[in-house]
Every structure is written in structure tokens, then in C-alpha cells.
Amino acid sequence: MDGSDGGLKRTDRATCFVMVILSLLVDEGISSAQSVRPDSQDTSSSSIASSSATTIGGYGNAFYQRNFGTQTALMDLERVVLFVGHRFTPGIAFFSELEVEDAKVTGGEDGGEVAFEQAYVRFTLDPTHSISAGLFLPRIGILNENHLPTEFNGNERNQVETFIIPSTWRELGIGFYGSSGGLPVSYSIALVNGLNSATFVHGSGIREGRFEGRNASANNLALAGSAELYLKNAVVGISGYYGGSVGLSSRQADSLQLQSGPFGTPVIIGESHVQYESGGLSLKVLGTAVSIPRASDINRAYANNTPALEYGAYAEIGCDILQSLCPVPGKQLIAFLRFETLDMNATIPSNGILDGTLKQRHIVCGFNYLPITDVVIKADVRFAHTGDQNPALVLNPSPVVVPYKNNITFFNVGLGLSF
Amino acid sequence: MKRREFLKSTCALGLLATSGMTSGMISSCASLPIVEAPVHDGVLRVPVELLSGQSLRVIRGSGLEFDIALERRDDGTYRAFLMECTHAHNPLMFNGTGFICPLHGSRFDENGMVTHGPASLPLTELKTRADGTIVAVSVE
Predict the structure, then answer these.
(1) N or C: which end of chain A has fewer CB within 10 A?
(2) What is the model's pTM?
(3) Using CB atoms, which residue from B15, B67, B124 is nearest to A39?
């Protein structure tokens, strides 16, 4: 009892120390700030948190999808997200996103999710530096932080930043964000809770190992960092992640022969991207890889066929036809083509089983029409190609099962908005 | 693949991909030093001599949450924009031709107009007044 009390006191003292430091930094930086208020427009309809205390916003999308492989079709209100923000002082603000997926959540039934996508407090130190604490999205890749449906082409988020980088990926922790005073460079570094390798699921990379703010194990931690250079018409960025994936006590971990500790049984991610935009033409290129050096230990403990290496890359070109042919203020008609390649088991440990279906290529082409900046109507086709199915992974096959198809075409039509 | 090999190959791949595209564009990357100026009674007071040599300066007012872009126009008048993204109220950066938000990627031109969302509203323009030696920007 004494020991645990002592631990609590130490934790309390550490928390107090951090809070005092934060308050001093914020007070020092902008305690005497004038409250600068917009004088030429009403920002209340498009803001997360305005100078005037509490505001709301949001985004959402719905789509129809025809799967020509299974001859089935689906309609779904994929997500509706509400932003709520509150500015306590010019230097301290709260941001949140509450998401409902698939329109409805019913106990005992599959599908649907209600979750906080973000809920954090931002302490502004000065105009170019801030600290965020709470549930937030580490800056990894392009889509994780910038995932509004009006901002990406196609109804579906790209596969690479869904399965290799598991967007939308939020964790609990503290992050430092800054930009250079002289050069157009921004950077960030965040300390967040780690992943849970026990819940990795074969076929979805590290995606199911996220805690997303719910009872996250804090024995294991992760560092995520990013840097972006903003050029005349381009953005060049890199990001990385290094985190432990075993949150067990050392005794439990030892019994499973897993490496524990803050960065034990690590997951390592490297990523780089380039975005270019000029005169209605846009280009986007991203490459990423995930390494799990002790994947064999995870497989031995949890039998979830974790890979040692997975990678993905995509390149996308888009052209605003309206801007090129007959510019109409506020309207865009973007034709785009995206090529994606990914392999969720590029390297497997000796106790893993190769799954050819996880080596995939996707070609997506279509149109985004934005009658106004905040509303988009989308239509696209995705041609998906995968490697062969490994019969060793098909347990108890149904006698009437349809043979596996390596090539499947999807047709999507949908609607998105943000405000 | 060992961790060191993975890191080396990832870094090499990233550097190779980005260096080619950046080498041609890096010369256009504008360096714009931040100039500090005092704020009194809701007015940012910027000495005119601080603006010599460049038509646009980023001004950091004491105690202000956001920097201010102050432009001297050809006709001798001044124009000021609050460097706050009108979408999520994040600080903006100047990239040589306009302003960009590192949070969600919104872009604004030198006139404060949106060139790329998700922001849909132009930058907040602040009132300015020049008396020969001082440019006063209202920040109240």
C-alpha cells in the first residue's frame, strides 16, 4: 500500500510539474495577448474554435459501392463527425471530433462505431509553437491529419494510408508542434501510448493494434516525428514512428517470451511524401514502410501471423478541368488517377504464413465535383488486383465457396461535406 | 530485414524521392525573418525602417497569438493580414507566394484569398494607418 501511494504521489508530483511548466510557458508567451478578432468576416460557420469561445463544425460522407467481383452493392453513411471547440484564453483551446460511423450503433450487432477521433487541449506558446495534450492524430503521412472528404480524391481513402499507415490513427499523449521563423518549415514530435501487438489481425497490418484512447496501456510508449518543407507550389515531408507494442508487465511479457518496456518489441514506421499543385494540376506521391523486427516473437505469443515488413506507395495526379478550361469561382471538377501498390506481408518471419492476397495493386480513377468548397460529389472506379490466395490459410472451406478472384472492380458514387 | 538495413533503405528511398523534386524548387523557397514590434492599447506599432528592403514582412506583436503579415504596396500604402487560418485557427506560414496552413493544407494567396481548401474564408485583414515613421496596425 505504501509503495503504491508513493507511486501515486510521484505521479501527482510529475503531473503538477508538467502543468506548472505548461502554465509558465503559456503565461510567458501570450498572457498579455490582445484578443484579435476578425473584422471582415464571420468565421463562426467554418471554425473549430474561434476567438469567440465555443463553436462547432463537422464533416461526413456517404457512398454507394458496387462490387463487380461478388455482384453485390452497398450503401453507407460512412461517417458523420462533429467538431466542438472552445477557446478558454487566447493561448489555451480545446478541440474535439466525435464520430459516428455507419450511421447507427446497436448493442450486440456488428457495424457502427461511436468514438472520439480527437479530444485535446492546445497550449499556444507563441505564434509558431504549441503543445497539444490529450487524444490527437500524430502527424504521419498526408491523410492521417488531413482527412476531410473534400480534401482527397475518390470515395474511399487510399489503401496505403488505410492499412500500412492506419489512418485515422489517434492516440493519447503530448505533442510539440512548431514552425521555423525564417524558413517555411514545420515540424512536430509526439510522445504517445504504444500499440498492442496482441490485437494485430492478419490482413490488416498494425491497424487493429491501435488503442485510440480507450484504456491504452502506458507501459509501452511511442515517439512520432515529422518535418515538412513548404515550397512555392509543393510540400515535401517526412515522418517516422518508433514505439513499443507490448504493454504487459515484465513478468507477463517474460512468460510469453516477449520483450517489454517502453519500446519493447518495437514497431518502426518511415514515410516520405511530396505534394505539388499549380494551375489546377495536382500531384501526390507517398511511400512508407513498417518494420516489426520481433514479429516472430509476436507470432509465437499470439499466433496472429504478424509480418516483419510491410510497405506501400502511391502516386496520384489530378487536374481541375474547370480551372483549366473555363474557371468558375468556387467550383472545381477534378479528374484524377491514382496508382497504389502495397504488401502487408513483404517479409514474414519463419513462423509466419505467406498470404498472397495481401500483395495488392489498386488503380483508381474518377471525378470529384465541388459546386462549393465545402461540398463534393464523387464518382470513381477502383481496379483491385491481388496475389494468389494461400490454401493453407483457408480453414474449413465451404463446399459452395466461390473461387478466389485476383481481380475485382469497384464502382463508387458518393457525397462528402465539411463545414 | 534488420532494423538498421530497414532504416537505411527507407531513408535512402525517401531522400532519393524528395531530393530530385526539391532541388529545382528550393531556390524559390523564401526566407522571411520575423520582426518583433510592441503592442500598446490594441495597436501594433511597426517602425517604417523595419520594412525597408522587402515589400512583405512577418511581424510578431508582443503578446499576440498570431503573427501579422504586413505588406507595403507600390502606392505607399500598407496592408496587414492576420496569419491565422480561417478553417481551424492554426498559425500560417509564408512560403514565398502566399500563406499555407501546416495543419490541414489550406493555402491563401498574397491578397489573403483562399487558393486551396479546406478553408473557405479569406484571411482577416487588419486596419492600418501610417504616419511617416510608424505603421500602426489595429489588433483589437
Answers:
(1) N
(2) 0.83
(3) B124
